[in-house]
Amino acid sequence: MPAVRFRWFSEKADDHAATADLISHNAQSGVAPQNPAMIANLLIGTVVISLTVVVHTFGLIVVTHATGHLVARFRMHGHRSRILAMISVVMGLFAVMTAEVWIWAGLYRLLDIFADLETALYFSTITFSTVGYGDVVPAHAWRILAALEGVNGFLLIGWSTAYLVAAGTRVGPFKAGEHF
User: Fold this and answer.
1) 56: closest CA among 88, 22, 14, 103?
2) Which helix (H) or strand (E) holds 25?
3) What distance in Å separates the CA atoms of residue 82 and residue 129, rounded to the nearest whole number?
4) Closest CA relative to residue 52, chosen from 151, 118, 161, 179
5) Rounded to an integer, what distance in angstroms lies between the CA atom of residue 26 and that of residue 28?
6) Distances in Å between the alpha carbon of 169 and those of 2, 82, 158?
7) C-beta of residue 63 within 8 angstroms of C-beta of residue 96
8) Which CATH class is domain 38-170?
9) Are 172 and 88 within 8 A, CB to CB?
10) What is d(CA 107, CA 130) in angstroms, rounded to the nearest whole number?
11) pTM of the model
12) DSSP secondary structure letters along 42-64
C-alpha cells in the first residue's frame, strides 16, 4: 500500500489530491475516511472556545462587581446615574469581547494562518461578530476553525446581550416596573 501524505499548508490542488489519496487508502483498508486537518481544527477550536467561555465568565463577574461598586459608591439612583451605570456595563462587555477577539487573533498568528497581526485581528473581528465580509479568508485547511470562531462569537454576543438586558432592568434606566 502506498504511504499517505497530508500537508496542512499546501496549495488547494495538493490538498484535494492528498484528501483523495487518504480516502482511497482508507477505503482499501476498511478504515472510515478521516481528515487530520479537520480533526486538528476541531480540537484547537474546542480549546479556544473553552478559553473564551472562561474569559467571558470571569469578565462578566468583574463587570458585575464593578457596576455594583459604582452604584454603591456614587449612590446611583437618579436617571442620569442609571445611564452612567449602563455605559459602564456596555464598556465592560466591550472590553471582555475585545479580549476574546484578541485571543482568536493571537491563535491565527501563532498558527501562521495570517501573515501579520493586523490581518489576523481584522479577520477575527469580522468572524467573531459574524459580519463575515469575505475579503480576507484563511487557507482551505483552516475553514472549520474560522467557522468555530463565528459560532463562538455568536453565542458570546448573545450571552452579553442577555446580561445587558438584565443589567438594564436592575441598575440601568429600564428598572422593572418604571417603563413597561
Assistant:
1) 103
2) helix 12-29
3) 27
4) 151
5) 5
6) 65, 10, 17
7) yes
8) mainly alpha
9) no
10) 18
11) 0.76
12) HHHHHHHHHHHHHHHHHHHHHHH
Each residue of 18-33: b (16+ CB within 10 Å) or e?
A: bbeebeeeeeeeeeee
* 7-54 pLDDT tens trace: 344 444 455 455 445 445 555 655 555 788 899 999 999 999 999 999
Question: Which residues, in sequence order, are CB contacts of 80 under 8 Å at separation 6+?
Answer: none
C-alpha cell, 177: 416596573
**CA 89/CA 67 separation, integer angstroms:** 7
Q: Any idea which of 32-41, 77-86, 100-109, 132-141 has the lowest mean pLDDT? A: 77-86
**How does DSSP classify residue 100?**
H
Residue indicated by cell numbers 485581528: 121
Would you state the cell numbers that stand for residue 54, as one nine-digit string? 472562561
Helices 117-128, 143-170: inter-axial angle, 10-degree rounding: 60
Other CB atoms closer than 10 Å to residue 176's CB: what's the count? 9
